[in-house]
Amino acid sequence: MERQDEPVQRVRRGRGRRPAAEVRAGVLEAAGRLLFTEGIKAVTFERVALTAGSSKMTLYKWWPSAGALAAEAYFARSEQVLEFSDTGDIRADLTRQLRAFVRLLTQDGAGPVIAELIGAAQTDPDLKSAFSREYSMPRRILAIEAMERARGRGQLRDDVDVSMLVDQLWGACYHRLLVPDAPLSESFAGALVANALDGASPRS
Amino acid sequence: MERQDEPVQRVRRGRGRRPAAEVRAGVLEAAGRLLFTEGIKAVTFERVALTAGSSKMTLYKWWPSAGALAAEAYFARSEQVLEFSDTGDIRADLTRQLRAFVRLLTQDGAGPVIAELIGAAQTDPDLKSAFSREYSMPRRILAIEAMERARGRGQLRDDVDVSMLVDQLWGACYHRLLVPDAPLSESFAGALVANALDGASPRS
Lengths: 204, 204
Description:
Chain A has ten helices and no strands.
């Protein structure tokens, strides 16, 4: 604990500061560790400052709420690859991407953390906008771009709203995560892609 | 306030009790009013008991958490018709049902309340199971039954998992409610149904 408090002391004494980027990375790392081990309720400015050896004032300056800090920490920590692999086959690419997403939620411990973040966002507008800005919106845009390219190759119909497909695929997974009335599995991910492309009506 | 406290007094004096069903209905009514006017944070055992003129002990006995009470109050209060109209045309019935759901979320004030309930459920296991038991699971089953009947009429393919369709339709709407990166509208609901039935692949 004393060692962690050291940087704060140094700042106070004016004997040199850590570069802001380094402090910021340390704060995010500490917040991410608390988030994944103890859940979102542990991510308070108080505890993160103590854990990171940073001053609470610094945190107040940089983040509008502890929830917003938690969202950015999640984003910084999550190893998930945002790039959409583009093999030229949208069916294969969507299936791979969605299965990887379900694996992340169900096997890699991210599921409860994302669920808590989205949950807390419903009563924390700062967290809500941070989650969108740092996480969900960039992902939506990457998916839309990949599907627009597929449309250019003739793999998706011209009259289909590809942004709607994001909700029909990833949104369906979030639904099973947040309202777990039916299991979230990789085979569910595969079925989502198949139906979003082929439809449930009998083929005429 | 004094008038509302009256029934509690009567119980204490043993001069007759209100029937349990009546007390229960009054508590749910009070909780629903607090939920819709002030949000989920106002639904505490303390305030609901005071508002309903009931004893806090009664509330503790009947509900495992204030969140669980809020969920049941929402369910009791919401006027939405759960019955699936069955005209024999699944495309029309799904479209009507999903558009009505979006109207409820966007125009009738239920959206923020459901969002708060699902949000709070992520850190309240009692609320999570109450939401499922009282609300989401009965709705899922009604949708599944309607789609099974449509399958029997040859309107849905045999190899389609109709439970997955619930997530691909209602789940997509919940996604736009909870992570509002794109607008939730009746035309979105229509596009969801069209794509879930027809698919996004070019028709061969």
